[in-house]
Structure formats: structure tokens, C-alpha cells
Amino acid sequence: MASDSSSKLRIIVENNPPKSRLEELNIKHWPKWAGPAGKYNLKYEAEETCYFLKGKVKAYPKGSSECVEFGAGDLVTIPKGLSCIWEVIIAVDKYYKFEPSPYASSSAC
After folding, report:
1. What is the pLDDT of residues 41-51, one digit of tens each?
2. Which first-to-last residue range defines the signal peptide (predicted)?
3. How much is the pTM?
């Protein structure tokens, strides 16, 4: 893979997905996380999908001049390998799920 692949990683935001989509993902069985307003430097070692119950965030992906905004009512997918700064404007309450590492299972040959 190219060494600049992290610059092609994108945060995907689904604004107000239908209830059927949330039920299909089984979101209410995911762990919850809540965090206060502030700035956080993050590096994603696995893909994260999260559904925001409360809050507002501006994410600044490394190597990009743009920010991605999301918050209450949004379903957000953050790709593995992305580094970014989260500026939490309004305290966050969310459901989240990390995709398991391909190395977590030894069944593949």
C-alpha cells in the first residue's frame, strides 16, 4: 500500500438514518461512551461505527484542511488508520462498535 493512504481515509456521516437501519445494526446492544467537551487527539487502530445520542463534534483529519461535523442523530463510520483531532463542542453520548482485527481470529490461512 502507498505510504500516503491515510490521506485518502474519509469519515462517513449518515444524518438521521432511519430507525430500520439502526435496528438492523443492533445499535442498542453496543457499548455506550460519554465524554465532556474538549479536544482529543485520536488514532483509529480499527474501524469505528458510532451513533450519537447527544453532542456535537468537529473532527479534523490529519493531512486535510477540512473538518467533518457530526452530532446527535448521526451514524458515523471512522476508518481504520485515520488520525484526527476531535473538537467536542457539546458533550457526547454515543453507542459505538469497533470492527474486530483480522488478526483476532486464527481461522484464516
Report:
1. 999 999 999 99
2. none
3. 0.84
Q: What does each C-alpha distance from 41 to 44, 64, 87 come to in angstroms? A: 10, 15, 9
Contact status, residue 86 vs residue 59, Cβ threshold 8 Å: yes
Q: What would the grid cell of residue 62 be?
A: 490529519
Q: Which residues sit opposite 23 in a β-bridge?
A: none
Task: Using alpha carbons, select from 71, 73, 11, 18 the residue that is nearest to residue 42.
Answer: 11
With a CB cutoff of 8 Å and minimum separation 6, the contacts of 109 are: none
- Whether the Cβ atoms of residue 9 and residue 45 lie closer than 8 Å to each other: no
Residues 6+ apart with CB under 8 A from 15: 73, 74
Q: CA 83: distance to chain centroid? A: 11
8 A C-beta contact, residue 72 and residue 34? no
pLDDT in tens, 8-35: 789 999 999 999 999 999 999 999 999 9
